[in-house]
Each structure stands twice: as structure tokens, then as C-alpha cells.
Please model this.
Amino acid sequence: MRTTVKNIIAKYNNDKTRLMDILIDIQSQYGFIPEEAVEVVAEETVLSKVDVVQTLSFYHFLSQKPVGKYAVYLNDSVVANMKGRAEVAKAFEEEAGCKFGSVTSDGMIGLHNTACIGMSDQEPAAIINDVIFTNLTPLMVKEIVQKMKKGVTASEMIKLKGEGQNGSALINSMVFNNIRKSGPVIFAPYDGGSSLKKIIKMTPREVISEIKASNLRGRGGAGFPTGLKWDFCTKTPGPRYILCNADEGEPGTFKERVILTEVPKLLFEGMAIAAYAIDAKEGILYLRAEYKYLKAYLENTLQEMRDANQLGKNIEGKEGFDFDIRIQFGAGAYVCGEESALIESAEGKRGEPRNRPPFPVQKGYLDKPTVVNNVETLCTVVKIINHGAEWFTTMGSRESNGTKLLSVSGDCEFPGVYAIEWGMRVRDLLEMAGTENVQAVQIGGPSGICIGPKDFKRTISFEDIPTGGAIMIIGKERNLLKDVVLNYTNFFIDESCGSCVPCRAFTVLMRNTLKKIIDGKGVKSDLDNLVDWGNKMKIANRCGLGQTAAQPILTTIENFREKYVELLQEDTKYELGFDMEKAVAASCAYVDRIPNL
Amino acid sequence: MSNPIVATTSLAGCFGCHMSLLDIDERILQLIDLVEFNKSPIDDIKTFTKQCDIGLIEGGCCNSENVHVLKEFRKNCKILVSVGECAIMGGLPALRNGIPVQECIEEAYLNGPTVGNNTTRILPNDDELPMILDRVYPCHEIVKIDYHLPGCPPRADLIWEALVALVTGGELNLPYEVVKFD
Model:
């Protein structure tokens, strides 16, 4: 084992900043990261064992115990549950003979829950040994497990393939793109590499000015002006880096997966433009572990671009325009979508957000000035260069120029990706998606807002409802508090990095209070507490995750207060939900005594 | 007007908070002028004989009797104060939280190093005994608590100041040194 592990580490030049890659490779080699491997890694990279373990224990897809020869990660998101996840999970447990959270005694099959895997338009879905299985039914599960028992590999199980590039030899996947509305920007036809030919005739300043003139704002959700970010980055001496955030962890979003499948060259071209503008030589695509099935395809794409002189040395013949990209995989951590946590992770550490300032544009990757842009933002850059800033500003609303990709899922007839112009009314979007009897719409994922019909006249735009793109439609028949809000709150408990106390503690207190209300034991003061604590969360946490972790509860109290109030006990002023019968049951049973209540 | 009436109790605590209350030295003479004690280990009154104004609670709840007493206090006192770490957070007894109660009972009565000669493996299950709770609960998870006085134990000055403030309606001076412990 020592030799194998040493070889893996040598592949990354014993570089401790590549710890993520090293651990990911060891995990896929052994199905877990053995104690002995941890020791070797520590020795070879000159880290302490604790350093290695603290990184390894942070990530969901890295494990110190075997996860099974077939490791099944079944999505446990709200949408997955809407689409029949419970039956699928039951089928897995019955067929495999073990419960979720455990591995069969022969070590063959491991069943694990996981957060949204970016397949919300084709749920229930699971990842088995890096292969994606979508639209699962109990019958399919039966077949899959039978094949596992015969030793068929996960990729050999794929029969039906998705449309477009999903069916290509390098992806070979049953994932569907479901592009419902392709729009005039990202999915519009274009001439690959043409923007690079154009920018080499411009100065970097002119490129930045063009992006500034387009009013392009970051598509990740926060909406920071892209041109300004690039400009800030050039103020600090280099070397500088371009990082593309393809962590796409917000439950309900999947549009980046479709971009990476259909137009990856557009993204890499966008990264090259950004590199030219800020004079960066290296770029990193930080890709979530859930999309590992795209690895071979994306690496091949990068090679094709190097061969076409769109990456590498002297790009398009321009002397000194050198830029190349590597792919950095994550290992299952929502918080790594936060840019400073993403940088920490790309440096091989726990994905804990940094304090700001300094901002990444001043001190980012390896403490050097770094631009972190979203996938969609960088793709849009290419089209702006090709068609000009003016073309771009004709689309969208006053403060939000251009188009936005939305990932639409949940209770609707046409889930999938919609490219809309900013400023579209929620109502119109719902009509397009084929919906009726909508109870609520979750916009921007769990960290966004949950609105009801009275707000469907509002628009999707930075000036009204901003969003990174996840739209989840919740039908009338759903139990909003139990099926949606509770799931989201549990999600934030799992994904909190634990660094800020309010985020670590309030999430649990709020979940418990919410459960108390759902169980009919809540009183008015519980509701007041939820609002009070939720508002404290907004100001007392370091990063976006902590600041928005109370959003599912806060925005539903704001927009669906009656759903809480109807569950409260009217005549009780104070109720803590203490249940003596439950509290003494275990000890009485053990000492053989009838509880005397 | 008669003096305000105070009741005190020690639930799953070590009586350290009560000792700290006694640590107010000569001010104890002022105390008896200031308040009247009802149910309390201090005067050994076992049951409430009248409605009280202030209840001081030491210790959290580890068994059914603690819960019963705490609820009695809530019924009979206008204001309840959690005094000390155990009442507020469960304290040392709460170290068992997270360990299944069965294991705790085993350790205490069967396997622990201080278990003498329990060869017949008797576990206490008489109806007269309090029933053990699944975990140790802080008081505010059982009943409404109006105030919390931190410390292990809260220093005598803090208890004194708080009591005087409550009784006289004055403001409580809580300098940082009084509530920080490291």
C-alpha cells in the first residue's frame, strides 16, 4: 500500500496544496482512506497527521471507513423526496440488505444519503461509483442491485443515454439536459475561439472596459459587477489566478451541469478572456465531486483547445498570452461554493470561509490576487466580446442586463433549464414550466426566498428577486413546513462548517423549534424566537451560508405565517415540549419497572 | 408590607450554589431582614406553605423527582432563577448526555470500579425511587425560567446583588469579571 500511495502523491509532486487530489485518488483506489495512507500522506507532504485528517474528515465523499465496493449515494433533497425518493430508498434497503448509512456485511454495497446532486429535473437520482442514475424507480433499483451482485460495473449498467453530449463516448451517461428555452446568449450558436481572436487585438484594459460597459453582474447569486472585480484584481501585483466556481451546490440548481456538458469550450474560452484581462497564467475549474462523470470529457476538451492553440503558450499567436486550466474536484461540501472556502479547498484544506477583507481579488488562491467567477458569468463574457457590450445591454431589465439560466424543478410538467431575460415575472415562468395549483416557489434555493401566489407578479432580477438560478415549484398538496422547510434546515445543519457559533448552534435550535411546532407543541413565543434568532444569524456569521441558513424559516414565516400559526397551541403561553413519558421510557424498561407517571 | 418570600432547592446539583449563597458572610444578617424563606434547605421547610415571590433553582433535572420539584416551584413562585451552570446547562451531570442511559445504569450498578458485590445483578426499580431521565435537562427545557445566574458556582456577590436587585426592584450591576470564567 505504501508504494501505491507514494506513487499517487508523487503524481502531484508531493505538493500539500494538492491534498484534495491526493485524497480523492486514494479514496477511489481503496474505497476509503486507510489509516496507513494518512500516515504516508503526512510524511510525504510534510503535514501533520492531524492536518490530513482535518481535511479528509471535512468532505462528504472522503471516508475513513470503507463505503462499499458499490457506493450508492442517493439524493435526499426536497425535490428528490417529492418525486418518490422514499420508495426508491426502501427498495435499495430491501434489495441490498442494509440500511442507509451502512455497508453490507460483505462490504459489497454501501448505502449513503447525500445532498442535492444537481439532477433535480430527473429525480430521484443517485451516484453509484461516480456514475449517475436518474429517474429511479423501485423496479430499476431491483435490477441495479441484482447486477451489482453479479459484479456488473456501474457504467456497464447504463443502457438508455441522455440527449446531446450526454450520449457521447466520453460521458456515456443517462443524464438529460432538458434545455427548455435556449435563449440568445449561452446556448446560442457561436464560432469557437472567435472571441480570443478579437481580444488579442485589444489591450487588457479595453477588455475590462467592454465588460464594465455591459453591466455584467456575477451569475452566482451575489451579483457583483464582473468588470469591476477584474479591475480590482489588477490593482494587486501578480501572479494572478482565475478560478471558475463550478461547485453548484445550491439544492435545486443544475444549469452549470448542462453548460459543462454542451458548451464547455465556451466556459474555457471565457476563462481565457478573464486571464487575458487580468494577466493570469493559471486557471482552475473547481468542479463539484458530483459531476465527476464529466471528468474525461472535460479533460479531453481542454486538450482539444490546447491543440487548437486556444489554451497553452502564445494563445492565438499572441506573444506572452499564456494560459492553461486544471480541473480541481471538490469532495462534497456545499460551503465550498463560497468563494473563499472554495479557494481554501483548492489549496487542499478544509473548506472553511475566510474572513474578509482581504478579498480574494487582493489575496486569494495561494495568497495571490484571484478572480473567482461563476460558470455562467464566464460563458456570458465570451458572447459579450463577440457581440459587443451594447448588444448585451439591450436585454434584461434596468439593473440586470442580459439573460439568466434558471434550473426549474419540482411540481411542474417541464422541469429543466430555461434561459430567460432578467425581469421576467414569476407568474410567466410558472406558466412556461407547465404548472397548476402552485402553493409556493422557492427562488434561489434554500438560501433564497420562498414566495406564495401574492408575489407571483414580482420579477426575477437583481432589483426585485435576485437568484443564482434555482427555482423549485411546490404544489398545493405538499406540506410546506415538513417537506420543504425542515429538509432545508437539516441541510444547513449538515453543511455548516462549524466555524461560527451562531451558524453551528442556531441552526440546530431552530430546527428543534421548527420540529416542535410541526409536532403541534409550539407556542407563540417559539415563532418570535425563530424570527429573532434568524435575524441574528444574518449579522453574526462570517459567510453567506451562515447568513442565509435561516432563510427557509424566515421567508416562510414572512410569506406563509398562517401555516405556522395554525399549528400553534392557542391557550398555552409557554410550552417546552418536555415529555416525561418519553424521557423515562428507556431507563424504566431497562430496570424492569412500570413508569409511574 | 411583609418581606418578599424566597424558596430554594437543589436538583441535580452538588449544593455548591447553596454554599455560595451562604458565602455572603455577614450580609446574611441583612438577608434575613430583607426576605423571608419558605421551602428551602436553608430553613429545612420541606413543602411550600405559601405562595413565594422568588425561587432559586440549583441543578438541572436528571430524574422524575427533579422534574416534579421544578414544576412545583414554577407553580408556587412568581419568579424562577436558574442559579449556576447545572441549572442553566446541565453542568457536570450532563456529561452523561450522549451516552445511552442503559450504559449509565450498568456502569453505576453493575460494572463500575466502585460497585461492590452486586452478584445478583440487582438494578434499583422500586416504585418509590425517582425514575432516571434519558438525559440531563437544563431547567429551561422543563419550565419557563425568568433569569439565569451563571457560574460554577455563581460567586456570592453575584447571588447577593441579583437577589437584592430583584427584591428592591433596582438594577443589577453585572460587570464582565463576574460572568467570565477563564
In short: Chain B touches chain A through 21 residues (CB under 8 Å).
